[in-house]
Design brief:
The chain is mainly alpha-helical and 117 residues long. The protein is built from 4 helices and 2 strands, in the order αααββα. The N and C termini lie far apart (42 Å).
């Protein structure tokens, strides 16, 4: 029974958040003008992002959570030089020259997922 009412509620909040994004005003101002609870609005924004990420298996709702990785012995033509490349969505690329171990990669991935980079 809860699912039957959840879909119209989700559609309502998706429409409201889309209107806010087009409005060009802050979320606080948008809520004030419409007598909406700022906390509820914020909760739905985060919940919709979470649902989108869950349905696609990613953090941003657009890209897959995992992409194929190709490991090669040498990415650089310079003798003795190593390079790591990480391809991101939108054609972005991170290139790291020098030593870069598994712990470094784990820290990079955590930073990317947290939105630090």
């Amino acid at each position: 029974m809860a699912r039957a009412t959840a879909r119209p509620r989700e559609a309502y909040w998706r429409e409201l958040t889309a209107r806010w994004e087009r409005s060009g005003v802050s979320a606080a101002e948008f809520c004030r003008r419409r007598s909406l609870s700022r906390g509820t609005f914020s909760w739905w924004r985060h919940e919709l992002r979470r649902r989108d990420a869950e349905s696609t298996g990613s953090g941003n709702g657009k890209e897959p959570a995992f992409v194929p990785v190709r490991v090669v012995d040498r990415l650089s033509t310079s003798p003795g030089r190593r390079m790591v490349e990480v391809g991101l969505g939108g054609g972005r690329l991170i290139r790291i020259h020098g030593e870069f171990g598994p712990d470094d990669l784990a820290r990079l991935v955590l930073a990317l997922e947290a939105g630090v980079c």
